[in-house]
From TrEMBL:
InterPro entries for this protein: Cro/C1-type_HTH, Lambda_DNA-bd_dom_sf
Keyword rRNA-binding: no
Keywords: DNA-binding
Species, as recorded: Paenibacillus abyssi
Top-level lineage group: Bacteria
Stretches assigned to coiled coil: none
Chain ranges passing through the membrane: none
Recorded GO MF terms: DNA binding
Protein name listed in UniProt: HTH cro/C1-type domain-containing protein
Lineage of origin: Bacteria, Bacillati, Bacillota, Bacilli, Bacillales
Domain HTH cro/C1-type residue range list: 8-62
CDD domains per the UniProt record, alphabetical: HTH_XRE
Keyword DNA-binding included in the entry's annotation: yes
Amino acid sequence: MSDIGYRIKCIRKENSLNQIQFAKSIGISQGNLSEIEMGNSNPSAETLISIRTQYNVNLNWLLTGIAAEDGTTYVDEFEKRLIEVFRNLDDYDKNEIIEFIRVKIKLRSI
């Protein structure tokens, strides 16, 4: 069983889904999913993106099985950099940054 196939199977089982349900949710056939889980084929880029989107899975972890050094997974490099810098701020500055982000989000929805 390939590592990526095993991780995909774990995601499916963590969500208490059978192969038919999981395959349908990510837009592939049950047979294709079975082949991926057994390590006989690799998922397409579209399938990986669908899994990431539908099940909020870190794509780096899905591809490599590796999370960040501290065990944290990040959505992308931007999120990782933001968290690393944010951790070095004092509480006042952290609150200010949070409010700034909220304003940015609100302005985008207008």
